[in-house]
Amino acid sequence: MDPVDASFFRDAPVRHEFVADFGVAPAELWQSLASDESVSAWGPGVEKIRWTSSRPFGAGTTRDVTLALKSVTVREQFFRWDEGSGYSFFATASNRPGLRRLAEDYVVSETPTGSRLTWTVALEPSRKLARATPALSPLVRVIFGRLVSDAKRYFARRS
Q: How far apart are CA 28 and CA 36, in angstroms?
């Protein structure tokens, strides 16, 4: 898969942004994102995360993420790591074809009642799937949106 930079979150052919508020402090939300389990702890959508870089994490960190959906595994490389407030990564490889580029951006901020996660998913399908992109985009939003629902349940149990 092709690497990206921050401009991809603005220019990607498919872009979905999710905003969710949680009744936990930003430090707790961040701790969960940067933990060994990361988003796999939130629910069944992400089966497993294996960090392939040593701590402390930063730009250049890598990990393998296995999704529950047909056991898709994606290798990710972080190009932004702002300790305590967010990170961005792009996919370098996947065991399933279909995407040319994929990137995600996570931003943690404080709210009067806890914290907010702003999560952006940006992708470009392979040439073979490009024509199907308009039809597939709502499905992609639902699949990725499930992570937000799972996170809300996860943090509601903790607060």
A: 14
Domains of the chain: 8-158 (3.30.530.20)
d(CA 152, CA 39): 12
For 74-124, the pLDDT digits (tens) are 999 999 999 999 999 999 999 998 899 999 999 999 999 999 999 999 999
d(CA 135, CA 149) in angstroms, rounded, equals 23
Strands of 6-141 (E only): list them: 14-22, 46-51, 62-67, 73-82, 86-94, 99-111, 114-125
Q: What is the CA radius of gyration of the chain?
A: 15
* Mean of per-residue pLDDT scores for the chain: 93
Q: What angle do CA 84, 88, 94 make, to 5 degrees?
A: 135
In terms of residues, how long is the chain?
A: 159
* Contact residues for 28 (Cβ-Cβ < 8 A; gap 6+): 115, 155, 158
- Rounded mean pLDDT of 55-73? 93
> Within 13 Å, how many C-alpha atoms sit on residue 57's CB side?
26
The model's pTM is 0.93
